[in-house]
Write a structure and sequence with these properties.
- It contains ten helices and two strands; from the N terminus they run αααααααββααα.
- The longest helix has 33 residues.
- The protein is mainly α and 288 residues long.
- It is globular, with a radius of gyration of 20 Å.
- It has a two-stranded antiparallel ribbon with strand order 1-2.
- α4 runs antiparallel to α5, α7 runs antiparallel to α8 and α8 packs antiparallel against α9.
Length: 288
């Protein structure tokens, strides 16, 4: 009876994951391709959702990050990134971020709280953890990569971000399906007992095959570089997933949120992106 109940529960969870995942894919694809504004709004929404859920996790441990100040700092960081990516400002404009950092520390002086260091540390780390990766989002579409780029022209090209999502989704899907089916050897039992080495290698192989297909669609960079991108996404994405699992375990929760049925919260679904996207951008920028 217990086995039957567990099997029914697993089937319901797979059903919810499939429906939610399908809708999420449609929304992301539409936002990426519809218009530059929808593209930028997608990045802003994912940033805000991830930071909100991170602060919620931290609050469960008894720490009180300065949420409003953190959101304002993260939002300002994203706006500045958009301006720089559009060529409306130079990188030196990021120096204005010292102002909110100063005011956050000064405002903490007014709190009657014994954990000032923890409060400040998690306020700033939350911004660093979520804002830095999503501030890469505009640069992935408004870039100066490849032979198609026109000098001095605004080059909106969401294909690279779409390719990133395709590689990430292919790895996650392969790891989940084959990990559930064949997984026996735990990847990191202490932090995330459901992840297995079998699932990781299955997802890794599928992401490599996806990279091969993408190289026929986006001819720059070449196949070798796309395979390297797949390796980065698979390995760094797994580390990002484990890091978020560590946060959840510390907070004593299973999911960071409940916005996405079958997937948890925004942070649950995009935790791998947080670590892998900046690394992919650095790699493409260096070879661009």
């Amino acid at each position: 009876m217990m086995i039957l109940k567990k099997r029914n529960s697993d089937l319901k969870n797979i059903y919810k994951r499939t429906i939610t995942g399908g809708l999420l894919v449609i929304i992301i694809l539409a936002a990426l391709w519809l218009h530059p504004v929808s593209y930028l709004l997608l990045g802003a929404v994912l940033l805000a959702g991830s930071l909100y859920e991170y602060y919620r996790l931290v609050a469960r441990t008894g720490i009180s990050p300065r949420r409003t100040a953190g959101f304002l700092t993260a939002g300002l960081s994203y706006i500045l990134s958009v301006m720089v990516s559009l060529g409306k400002a130079g990188p030196s404009i990021f120096i204005v971020l010292f102002l909110p950092v100063f005011f956050i520390m000064a405002a903490e002086l007014q709190r009657k709280n014994e954990y000032h260091l923890n409060n400040l540390a998690h306020t700033f780390f939350g911004v660093l953890y979520t804002a830095l990766p999503f501030c890469v989002f505009p640069f992935m579409a408004f870039n100066s990569w490849g032979p198609e780029t026109s000098a001095g022209a605004l080059n909106f090209n969401p294909r690279y971000m779409l390719a990133f999502f395709m590689l990430s989704w292919s790895f996650d899907t392969g790891a989940y399906i084959f990990g559930s089916w064949l997984g026996k050897n735990k990847l990191q039992d202490r932090i995330s007992p459901e992840k297995t080495w079998e699932g990781f290698f299955a997802g890794f192989i599928i992401s490599l095959l996806t990279a091969w297909l993408i190289s026929g669609w986006i001819t720059w960079p070449d196949l070798t570089d796309w395979l390297i991108v797949a390796v980065i996404i698979s390995t760094a994405g797994t580390i990002g997933d484990l890091i978020e699992s560590m946060f959840k375990r510390n907070a004593g929760v299973k999911d960071s949120g409940s916005l996405l049925p079958g997937h948890g919260g925004v942070l649950d679904r995009f935790d791998s992106l947080i670590i892998s996207l900046p690394l992919v951008y650095v790699f493409l920028a260096l070879f661009g």
